[in-house]
Amino acid sequence: MLASTMKMLEPVQPVRKPRCRVVRGTYPNSFGHIARKTCTKPGYTMYQESVLRYRQYAEGKKEDTFIQTLATNHISWEEITEKKMVDSAVKRKVRCKFEEEEKQLEERQLRLKKLLSDEENALLNEIESVPFTIEQQKESMRQRAKQLREKREEERQKLVQEKLDQKFRLECDPLRTATSKRLVQEIAEEHRRNSNKLELICKEKQMVDGIFREMNKKEYQKMLEKEEKENKERKARNKEVANVLREQMAELEENKRREEKLKEEELKLLKEQAILDEVKEKRDLEEKRRLQQETRGIFEKSIKEKLRRKVEDEREELESDIKALETLLEKYGEEERQKQQRKLECQKETQSYLKYVRSLLAEEEARKKEMERMIHEDIEKQWQKRLKQWRLDREMRRVLMDDVLRIRSRQVMDKLVAINTERAEAEKEKDQLLGEIERHKEEEAEEIQKERQKKSQYFQDLRGQIEFNNANQEVLKNLEEECYKKELQAEKELKAKVENLLKSNVSLCDQEHPLRRALSQVC
To answer: How far is CA 185 from CA 192, 309, 408, in A?
Structure first.
């Protein structure tokens, strides 16, 4: 609004007219054209400037339109708000005026009630404060007696006047003739009025019967429409319930399939757990067998190595001894002669040498045993080291396998717990669905029972209406018969009374007709 107002307050720029390039010449009918200014800008720049100017113009126009729309909306909003304020102010003033009027009326009623009560109290006090004296009582009694005498005198004068009028009517023949004619006219008028009244009663009865028939027809039509509508609604509701039941049955089937799938998965997990346990047992047995085989192989290898070394050492020693003995024997054979003498010495030396060799062999055997012992100790150390490493590796593998089995067991247990949870939820949903189905069946049975009760109540109401109409018709018929009988009796009495009056010259113009009285009593 401020921008539009500022824009409206801006000074109006004068419109620039295009310059005329036609110039009159010095001679008549001669003219010339002023050359156009040469453009210093290229065409593309001018095109861009024109596009920018057009965009600015469009944006300004759009902004003006938007501002104008805002202004229009603001004005319309102000008008609507002003109307609402005026209406609310008028309603408030009217309500205040009504409240003031009611308040003033209540105040006036209270003032009037107070004045009446004060006046009544004042009168009562005045009556109580002014006691009657004996003279005043006598005077009031005299006035009362005078009033009673005047009243009795007026009644006597009235009775005398009536008797005189009756005597005049009885003694006046023209009056009696006119009275009888007027009585006959009144009787005819009464008959006509009674017949019209009976026709009106019959018409009213027919109209009431038609209204009842129309009402019954409308009620029956409404009942049919209502039943049709209820049947449609019941069909739609049953269809919807059938769809819901189908969805619920599909959901139950889905839950059954899911439960079967969960059972299969549970069996699969249990089988997998059994396979893992079996693999663990097999692994332990294989590890034990491998350990036993490795131990047995190491011991067999060490024993074989000991035996081989022992055999090789003994063979080498025997070969060396045999070679030494052969050399000695050869020497002895060559020098047999020379050494015959020394044979015993040689034998002694040989025996000593053999002893020496045996001692050497014993020492060698001791050294071999020591070496074997040392080798055995080294083997034992290596074996203990290897066994320790193997035990560490086996412990690590066992820990790793236990971790894997524990993780797998935990996963299996988690899956079993999830399966049990899903199964419990599925059972719960199944119970809920079955409960909803049972509740829906109960509600439907209750609705059907209510509809049956409503229909039975409606038919009972219809029977009651029919019985009421029949009873009403019987009552109306009995009333008509009674009216007809009373009319006949009244006509008989009227004829007898007219005859008596005609015989006795008495007029009944001022008395009520008995037929009208009977009809008034009946109606």
So the answer is: 10, 177, 125
pLDDT, tens digit, 9 for 90 and up, residues 77-110: 777 777 777 777 787 888 888 888 888 888 888 8
User: Model confidence over 321-332: pLDDT tens digits?
Assistant: 667 666 666 665
Q: What angle do CA 303, 309, 315 make, to 5 degrees?
A: 135
Ordered by start, the domain boundaries in the chain are 43-125, 140-169
Contacts of 163 (CB under 8 A, 6+ apart): none
Highest mean pLDDT pick, 17-26, 38-47, 49-58? 49-58
Assess contact for 429 and 255: CB atoms under 8 A: yes
Structure tokens, 90: 């008028």
pLDDT mean over 16-33:
67
pTM of the full predicted structure? 0.28
- Angle 398-399-403 (CA atoms, 0-180°, nearest 5)? 115
> CA 78, CA 339: separation in Å to the nearest integer?
162
- With DSSP H G I counted as helix, E B as strand and the rest as coil, what are the percentages for the chain, rounded to 5? 90, 0, 10
| Residues 6+ positions from 501 with CB-CB distance below 8 Å | 180, 183, 507, 508
Query: What sign does the dihedral 464-467-470-475 (CA atoms) show?
Result: negative
Nearest to 9, CA basis, from 1, 21, 20: 1
**How many beta carbons lie within 10 A of that of residue 515, not counting itself?**
21
Q: Which two three-digit tokens encode residue 253?
A: 């089937």
Q: For 381-419, write each residue's pLDDT tens digit.
A: 777 777 777 777 777 767 777 777 677 677 777 777 777
Is the confidence at residue 115, as pLDDT, over 70? yes
Under 8 Å between Cβ of 12 and 23: no
Rounded CA gap, 58 and 51, in Å?
10
With H, G, I as helix, E, B as strand and everything else as coil, classify residue 131: coil
For 138-194, the DSSP string reads: HHHHHHHHHHHHHHHHHHHHHHHHHHHHHHHHHH-HHHHHHHHHHHHHHHHHHHHHH
Biggest distance spanned by C-alpha atoms of the chain: 236
> Most confidently modeled of 126-135, 211-220, 258-267?
258-267
Identify the CA nearest to 287 among candidates 384, 187, 396.
396
Residue 504 confidence (pLDDT): 56
Q: How many residues does the chain have?
A: 523
- Evaluate if residue 371 carries a pLDDT over 50: yes
